């Protein structure tokens, strides 16, 4: 009888579909060497990868050949896969028993709509985990060899996204313009003039250093250091079309040294490659 029960249980386990799950994984700023070890392992284990536009091909090459790839990215303010569609992809694949890796550029918990996707998975009863990644602001500071906080300069840095123009306009600009405040502005190309105007309107120092970095951590990264009074006009003169982050009040040492164009170098396996 015991043998028969074990046999029936074994047959049931073979017939029952595996339980799917979703891992929300940060892909970092772009350089595949900045992926965490856990991120690399989960990408390789994934049955399905649902990934954003900013996830590089080198990251996707870590996946198994038989993995299914679903792109849900968009460029800038262009056409997008809706959040409901993304949620549907995740739930459908996990419900079928797949291990789904939702691969997001940078850190999944920063401006990545992580909560909405976690909520959808929770409603569907699907197990989840979150794996952090290196965010662009940290990578940018490392590239410039400066810190995001420094004693006697700033005790905090505020992270903002300019992608939602309406929400961006509603920030407490008087507080953000106070002396000693530092900002990291994601996706700020189209709102640079607005950012400049609001900070100056609320009394920010015109000499405040501003650094703009495109394609941070990648071989084609570029940057320039300016000040709050001039950076928006100078940014308009640049041919930047890649992902951009703007650091306000952080690269003061570079600004004092008189840098306008920063010779940013990309470090890979010990070799330095000059930026474009």
Question: In summary, what is this structure?
Answer:
The chain has about 280 residues and is of the alpha/beta class. It has helices at about 1-15, 35-45, 55-60, 85-95, 115-125, 135-145, 165-170, 175, 190-200, 230-235, 250-255, and strands at about 20-25, 50, 70, 100-105, 125-130, 155-160, 180-185, 210-215, 220-225, 245-250, 260, 265-270, 270-275.
Plain-language structure description:
- The relative contact order is 0.13.
- Helix 4 packs across helix 5 (114-123).
- This protein has 11 helices and 13 strands.
- Helix content is 32%, strand content 22%.
- The strands form 3 sheets. It has a 6-stranded mixed beta sheet.
- The protein has helices at 2-15, 37-45, 57-60, 83-95, 114-123, 136-144, 165-169, 173-176, 192-201, 231-236, 252-256; strands spanning 21-26, 48-51, 68-71, 99-104, 127-131, 157-161, 182-186, 209-214, 222-227, 244-248, 261-262, 265-268, 271-274.
- The radius of gyration is 22 Å and the shape is elongated.
- A hairpin with a 7-residue loop joins strand 8 and strand 9.
- Residues 268-276 have low confidence and may be disordered.
- It has 2 domains: 11-131, Cobalt-precorrin-4 Transmethylase, domain 1, CATH 3.40.1010; 136-274, Methyltransferase, Cobalt-precorrin-4 Transmethylase, Domain 2, CATH 3.30.950.10.
- It is an alpha/beta fold and 276 residues long.
